[in-house]
Every structure is written in C-alpha cells, then in structure tokens.
Amino acid sequence: MLQDLIRIRREKLNKFLKAKINPYPDSSGQTHTIKKVLDDFGAIEKEKGEVIIVGRIRSIREHGGSTFIHIEDESGSLQAYFKQDILGQEKYKFFRNFDIGDFIELCGTVFVTKKGEQTLLVLDYKILAKSIRPLPEKWKGLRDTEVRFRERYLDLLMNPAVAERFRLRAKICDALRDFLTDRGFLEVETPVLQTKASGALARPFITEHEAMQIPLYLRIAPETYLKRLIVGGLEKVFEMARVFRNEGMDTSHLQDFTMLEFYWAYKNYEFLMKQTEEMLVYVLNRVLGTLQIDYQGQKIDFTPPWPKQTFRDLILKDCSIDIEKADTTEKLQEEIKKKKIEIEDSAKLSFGSLIDQLYKKVSRPKIKGPLFLTGHPIELSPLARKNDQNPKIVDRFQLVVLGQELVNAYSELVDPLEQHKRFEEQAKMREGGDTEAHMMDEDYVRAMEYGMPPIAGWGMGVDRLVMFLTNAPSIREAVFFPLMKPLSVQNICPATQVKSQKGTGKNIEPGITRTQAWNLVCKYIKSENARKHMLAAETMMIALAKRFEEDEIVWGLTGLLHDLDLEMFDYRKMPEKHGPTTAGILEKEGVHPIILAGIKAHNEKCGMGRQTLMEKAIYAVDPLTGLIVAAALVLPSKKLSDLSAQSVLKRFKEKSFAAGVRREAIKSCEEFNLSLEEFVKVGLGAMQSIADKLGL
C-alpha cells in the first residue's frame, strides 16, 4: 500500500519535470506569514490587496470545478480556495499533481466564506517542494512512541503539543541564561573531546583521534575546565553543555544530555542553596506563572523555603540504619544483611557507594520534594570540599524532586594536594573494577597548583527540568532526537567498529610496544609458568588475528598482558578484581582502551560483557593454553611436537582431566564461528611454533 502511494507520487513528480517545472525551486516570493494575514485580515480584505503565503498542504477537498485546501506554516493555518473559472482549466487541472504534504506558494486575495471561514482566493500557485512519502493519516495521528522518537519531524507535524513543549523548553533555557547573566556571569564553551573523562562519577564514551593516535573521551561534565577558567581570573562562568555518559537507559536518564553548570568564586554551597531557590522560582514564574506544578498526577509546590535533610537522617528514618555507627563497609554490609535489604553487587562497593545505593533503595523513591539532600560521603565527591566538622562528608547538596536528582552542587575542593590524594583513591577504585570512578587528571591538578580561590559549583540536568515543567512522562520527550538503537545493524557508523562483532579495526596505535609490555610482565609476574602462559596466549591470539584478518599487534598484546595482576592478590577471594586491576595499571601507561576492554572481558567474574571478536577470542584462548599444556605434560616425551589436536580433543571430553580448566569458555569459540576442532588446531599450532620458549 505504502509503496503504491510512493509510486503514484513519483509519477506526479515526473509530470512536473515533463512540464519543465522545477519541483524544488530555491526560494519563494512570500510577502506574509499566515499569522500576519489572519491578524490583518480585515485591512487586507478591505484594500483587496494581493498576498503571497507559503506552507505545507495539510488537506485537500475537491468539489467539481473548485477545490479547498488548508495550508500551514509555523505561524498558523489558513484555508485556500482554488476555482477553475479564475485559474483556467489547464492550471486548475494541473493542481491535481499536488498532494497533502507538498510545500506550495499561493498568491491571492482574502475573503470570508458563507460559513464564516477566513479564506484565500487563489489567483496563482507555485510548487516549492514535492513530497514523495505520504504523511501519517491525520485521524490516526502518530502514537507509536518508537516511531515518534525516530521520526521526530513527523511527531512535530502531527502532534501540536510536542512542538509546544519544545517552544517551552527554549523559554526555560532563556530564563536560566538570563538569571545568570543578570548576576554578571559569563557564558563560555569548553572542550567536548577530552583526554581525561573528569568532572563526575560516570562511565565515558571512548573514541580516538586518528591523526594524533590517542584515545579520547566525550566529556561527562564540563566541571574541571570551567574551574580552570576560575584559575584564569574569570570569577563567574557558566556553560549550557552537552555531555555524554555511557550508562543505561530509562525514563529519567539519557546518554546524551544538556547540563547547565556554573561556578562562582568566593561563595560556598550554602549560598548556592538560596540561589537555587531563587533561580527556579524565577524560571517557574516567568515561564509558567506559578510555583505549583502538576507532574504525572502529582502536585509539586516550589514555594520556598525548601526543607533540608542529611543522608544519615533519611536512611535512619527509612530503614533504621545509622551510618555513623555502621561506619565501615563491613559494618554497613552486616546491617543491610540484617534488614534483608537487597543491593546488587554490594560486595564490590566502597563504603560511600554502599551508602549511596542504600539511599537510592530505601529513601530516594519516597522523596516528593523539592528537598535539599546534604551530608554526602566523601567517596562520592572527589571534587568537593571536605566538611570542617566531619571529615567523612563533604560540603555538598543535591536538590531532589519526585525521587530524582535535579541539581548537584558543592563547595569546591581547591587544595591541590588533597585533590591529588583523592584522585589516587579514585584510581585505586577504578583498578578494582569501578568503571565510574574518577580518572587521575594531572593537568587539572597542575592548574590548581597555581592557586584557586574558594569556589561554589552547581550543575543541573536541563532535560530533566524540562521533563518536570512540561509534564513529560519520559525524559526522552524533552529532547528533539533521543538516542535510539538502529533498526538495522548495517546502519551502525563505522566509527563504532571498536564494539562491533568484527572486532578491533585496523591500524590502532596500542599505546605500548611489545618490549614495554614484556618488561611489565617481568615486573609484575615472577612465576616462570605464569609468564609462559602469557606467551602462549599472545601467540595464540596472533594466530587467530591472522585467521580473522585483524590487528595482530593489538591481539597479541592483549594475550600477553591479560594476566598481569595474577600475583597481586588472592584470585579465589577477590575474583572480580582480576582484569580490572590490570586495566587500571595499563590505563596509566596510555594503553589503548580496546586492549583494556579485552583484558577485562577475559574474566567473566568481573562483570564485563564480551562484545567484540577479540574479547570473545581472549576469553576462549585463556583456558585453552592450560588444557594444551596439561595434555602435553602427560605424554612420555612431554613435548608439544608430539601432541595432536585429536589428543587434546580427547582430553577435553574427559571431565576428570585438568578439571580446573574452564571447558565452557573453550567451547565458546563457536561464538566467533570456529568449531572446537578448528580452534584447538589453531591454538596447538601456535603453541608448537614457540615450544622452545615454553620449555615444551
């Protein structure tokens, strides 16, 4: 049906071309907007003057020798009347090549019909753009949420309330800017591409600079660059910044969103609480004319003053756990266990993160707000100033509305020595597998060392504010084009090849040489057998890279370095640290993120998924080296040269042989389209090629 409609429209398009009429001219002779015509209708009608309007055809109704249409521009809609006696038979008949959705220019005079409708009598018309696809049927509208977000242009055309929401968003942003500029703030821009993902606790998107051959991150916050400007002498700065966080999707989070951040020298977080009240009261009064809003059936009153509560008070009230008494990770975990509160991966969390997750579980969903939340644990705030009375918390607040954070602000940490220490603590958490922990940012610390005045910093998610103030059920309603998964993987941009099924891409600068990698192995691994295992994994990964026409250097380095942390802790007690600890070490060395991802992916207990071909390969290679060595050692000669693939496959089937070998991981070779027999042949051949180095 749709293809038939498209075919008919293409046939009409050809009629324009045959008539030597350009169906896509470069401009129009418009004299009036539709709103202007309607506003001045009486005067135009009295003067009998001609006007030229433009817009999209939204309806067509033909009645013998006359036709009525509705034409719409951004300012409004107007009825137009085509009469054969006025246009002439040929001109009138040719109009049948127009369709709903086409853009048209109309020249004519205005009059009022017998039914009292203001109308344009068409004296001439001109095509401005021929549409090929029909618009959705007006009486059905556009209701499918997926289609609405993917084809927002249709959503705007068919749902007037959507366009009104975005006009309201523009007014909200204007009000926010005016509030700050009226107080002497300077609007600035800071880098989106950064060498360190800093300014927040979040997982970044990773890309790379082809010419420089370095990994880069899409910014997760503008914070550290805005504070560099304070060092440079600008005392009040703000940015309406687009930021990017590689996190999950739900109705209140976006991966690509707008953050308003400002920094005010010589002020503190308590001062900003008052400013927050004043700002939102100003915005609400200016944009909505009220301080009471209705959000999804819930009334929220923003009349100040707004209440304040600490983390401790909220959690104590909601689950009877006192975090000042349960003041270590172990004590808090025990209390949570007693209360039978389920917190995912609680064993992996630091003390501060555990408090945060407990708050999100038992307290945050109950908050209606607006509420100022204070007393944040220091581990959650690596850039915030330590409280003078209680060094375990920081001078920070969050504004929470309906269980969601709207504003985050604090007195900034301006002590460079303390900041460096905090970054080191975050780096340890990152090495331990916390992918949201802050990266070490030496350049930012260097800026701090030139001297920072006292600073109060403030950040708010603009999209979330728009969601609340426009009564949108999802935050994706508050942005024009929310990120959507492609309908076909063939539409994925080649730049995402890093995470594609194919693997690592080509010509990647690994950030480390083979010699440097081996030196690290010798530095951290003292066991000869462990070193031989890593050599075997390197050689096997190179053999697979050749087979799949992948980057042999990158694959080989991943195999060589994958067990670098093997002797740093008891793997049986802390299996989740194996892999992330190595990645943390190598990240400091400037090793490419693709290698880091591969190393983490080889250990399923650290919670990293296997997405690329290389990640799947290293997961299977790691145990296969052990099985092959075990199979060789039971031979009388103990030599790899005497071992056959069939012998290895036979041993694979004997579950009691080398029982500790992860056979399911070896069998996962089928995920990258190698049979078990093929995989064993490739692996054995690779290890036989370096049998002398392996002592076998």
Q: Would you kindly provide a brief summary of this structure?
A:
The protein has 696 residues and is an alpha+beta fold.
Descriptive overview:
- It contains 26 helices and 18 strands.
- It has 696 residues and is an alpha+beta fold.
- α17 (514-524) runs parallel beside α19, α18 (528-548) packs across α22 and α23 (645-653) crosses α25 (676-689).
- It is globular and about 110 Å long.
Helix percent reads: 25-40%
Structural class: alpha+beta
Number of E strands: 18
Chain-averaged pLDDT:
89
Spatial strand order of the main sheet: 6-10-11-18-17-16-15-14
Strand-helix topology:
Elements: H1 2-18, H2 34-39, H3 41-47, E1 51-63, E2 66-73, E3 76-83, H4 84-87, H5 89-94, E4 103-112, E5 118-129, H6 145-150, H7 152-158, H8 160-181, E6 186-187, E7 193-194, E8 206-209, E9 214-218, H9 223-231, E10 236-244, E11 256-265, H10 269-287, E12 292-295, E13 298-301, E14 308-310, H11 311-319, H12 329-338, H13 351-362, E15 371-374, E16 396-401, E17 404-411, H14 416-431, H15 442-448, E18 455-461, H16 462-469, H17 514-524, H18 528-548, H19 552-561, H20 580-588, H21 593-601, H22 613-633, H23 645-653, H24 663-667, H25 676-689, H26 691-694
Parallel strand pairs: 3-5, 6-10, 14-15
Antiparallel strand pairs: 1-2, 1-4, 2-3, 4-5, 7-9, 8-9, 10-11, 11-18, 12-13, 15-16, 16-17, 17-18
